[in-house]
Amino acid sequence: MLPLERTVVGHLIAMSDDHPELTGYEPGDHRPLRSPHVVLVMRILVVLGIIALVLPGIVTTMSVGANTANTSCARWVALEKPEATGSSARFEMFGPGGVGWQCYSVGAFGGDELVASLGIIPNGSRLPVPVSNT
Question: d(Cα 121, Cα 24) in Å, to the nearest integer?
Fold first, then answer.
């Protein structure tokens, strides 16, 4: 049974699968529309375009994360190891605190020592609050 369609006046007419605009169409000589060289160049340009869109976001995210980690690590070292001469924040895949930024004290007695694990996205507001003994 053919599907039915309403016309403007409200009468039903039968629809068919024939497309009058395609009568007499021959699909061509079965050659590709573009040469393999052009297709390769287009693919390379698309990949380069995607990289150009994504790479600045990755670089910016890593730069902001590194700056935040260094600032947060300096605060952690000043709180936990005041005798240290500096701090070092490193992104480690298999660090003692797991994947993410690790904070080390530098120059204290005994060499570099892990002070805190800052996580994948470092945040400076996670410092412990010192309790006064009054």
Answer: 63
Cβ count near 84 (within 10 Å): 19
The SS3 of residue 30 is: coil
> Residue 15 falls within a domain, yes or no?
no
One digit per residue, the tens of pLDDT, for the chain of length 134 reads 445 555 555 555 556 667 777 777 777 777 777 889 999 999 999 999 999 999 999 999 999 999 999 999 999 998 888 888 899 999 999 988 889 999 999 886 777 889 889 888 888 666 666 676 66
Give, in order, the Cα–Cα distances in Å from 73 to each of 12, 25, 52, 102, 116: 76, 71, 32, 8, 8
Any idea which residue has 């009568």 for tokens? Answer: 23
Domain span at residue 43 reads 36-126
Token duo for residue 86:
């500096």
Residue 21 in domain: no
> Which amino acid type is present at position 114?
L
> In which residue are the tokens 């590709």 written?
32
Both tokens of 125, joined, read 């507001």
Domain-located, residue 23: no
